[in-house]
């Protein structure tokens, strides 16, 4: 972990990274994308859900994951354990569950009626006597390695994962553990399919350098101020392949009248305004102890962002569909409103968040469209874009090939 509050070179601090241009090739090359599919996404732990999405035995969700070329069932068993299975019948390969979510007593394939219990064991085969040497004990659903951290469910489709989930999360897990995630149970979510490489989308949320220009009509004045006109981060800190950016704000910022009303009636949901109170955060959140801290933007490699605000949080999951298509899942979690005033406050902040994200979204497909032109071969990065640089290095290390020029 590295933290710095004075002016020195982040690019050196975070692993003595190369300071040269970063190749564009990995963002547009189909062969490179296939290496990412096999050597990253099919090898590491991926966040797919939260445990409260399947609160009771028999509750399930189905996750279609195109980059893995599979469909995943996440189900809570009778023993209350959450498990994951490939959504594939052991008979003729049909999908066992076709609804996105629901509650069942067992899992029944719609094709020929084979039935499995909530633990994935094969329990029923119509006309069983007509099969040859059928061993039901060997024909259960194919289980996928799964685990949970702080209520987040992760899977790893490798047949023999090289690390447990906690080994993979490493020092990130204790650094962020203890934030009141479960209390923020009100969830607003949306998804968008974009014509953009997954790394272009993820890079957009790995730096604050863009705020002054792109968000000049929304949140720029809350994050930039005379002593910090370019929105330099309070700190960048890393935990193995996972990385974080701590951001402060303008203590003299005056929100809009609507935001002031919302803050008055829902102060726990402040998003771009600064609380003067003390915070009891895990050590990885606001690690510098800055009084003007606003939020912690963290990234769990490869495709999950977990953003911590005061008393609420947001997740982004960037799911590759092809070399230039990505499914972006956004979820906002709030502490449930206790009254109409707090509900109003959440709506104001939810809409402010939406407008800000729409500004971010406006750049992504435009970027991809001209990357494909071949007019430029490299990106030139500012020191405050160090996490973009580091992420590219991590991808190269995982796929173990020379960078594409």
Task: Please specify the SSE layout and strand pairing.
Layout: H1 10-13, E1 22-23, H2 30-41, E2 46-50, E3 59-65, E4 70-76, E5 82-86, E6 101-103, E7 107-108, E8 115-116, E9 122-124, E10 143-149, E11 152-156, H3 165-169, H4 172-176, E12 186-194, H5 198-203, H6 211-214, H7 220-223, E13 235-239, E14 242-248, H8 257-265, E15 293-300, E16 304-309, E17 312-322, E18 325-334, H9 340-371, E19 378-379, H10 386-399
Antiparallel strand pairs: 1-19, 2-11, 3-4, 3-6, 4-5, 5-10, 7-8, 8-9, 10-11, 12-18, 13-14, 14-15, 15-16, 16-17, 17-18
Low-confidence stretches: 1-5, 267-278
- SSE succession: HEHEEEEEEEEEEHHEHHHEEHEEEEHEH
CATH fold group of the largest domain? Naphthalene 1,2-dioxygenase Alpha Subunit, Chain A, domain 1
Portion of residues within helices: 10-25%
Strand count, sense and barrel status of the largest sheet are: 7 strands, antiparallel
Task: Describe it.
The protein has two domains: 10-40 and 172-399, Naphthalene 1,2-dioxygenase Alpha Subunit, Chain A, domain 1 (Alpha-Beta Complex), CATH 3.90.380.10; 46-162, Rieske [2Fe-2S] iron-sulphur domain (Rieske Iron-sulfur Protein), CATH 2.102.10. It is 23% helix and 26% strand. The protein has ten helices and 19 strands. It has helices at 10-13, 30-41, 165-169, 172-176, 198-203, 211-214, 220-223, 257-265, 340-371, 386-399, and strands at 22-23, 46-50, 59-65, 70-76, 82-86, 101-103, 107-108, 115-116, 122-124, 143-149, 152-156, 186-194, 235-239, 242-248, 293-300, 304-309, 312-322, 325-334, 378-379. Strands 2-11-10-5-4-3-6 form a seven-stranded antiparallel β-sheet, with no helix packed on it. Strands 12-18-17-16-15-14-13 form a seven-stranded antiparallel β-sheet. A three-stranded antiparallel β-sheet has the order 7-8-9, with no helix packed on it. Helix 8 crosses helix 9.
